[in-house]
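debug: dumping io for the single-chain case to check the tokenizer round-trip. Nothing else runs in this session.
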Amino acid sequence: MWQLPPTDRLYYPLYTACVELGIPFCTQVGHTGPLRPSETGRPIPYIDQVALDFPELTIVCGHIGYPWTTEMISVADKHANVHIDTSAYTARRYPTELVDYLRGRGRRKVLFGSNYPMIAPSQALEHLPDLRLDEETTELFLSGNARRVFRLGDHS
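debug: decoded output
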């Protein structure tokens, strides 16, 4: 929102604090909803560089990274500490490449998000069965990955 990329040194104390506190850093990726420049929402080079500079920092990238979803997936694959959340999208609007990733190698990297109150969880999940996820992937997507990433109770 400040038209600064995530690699701006202004943010580095925040990343350091998140590492010290053991909490994930959550950020928006992809183009912005407000009428602001979208370039700073690109996964490459920005999220990629932050993950390289802070390998201990867990990063949750919201809003799928669209229109750079393939970039977002590649950054999540590259860095064990980078995850994707689906906030601001309903299941019907997930890009095909994200659904394929979720069904396969990304099953432990994608977290459900709704963007409440703009999109209620029930609305965001209305077409979840259309994704044809198996039972384990559905559980990981809806709660297991978030429990693990945010260290909420049992996160086996």
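debug: round-trip ok. Residues 135-149 form the longest helix (15 residues).
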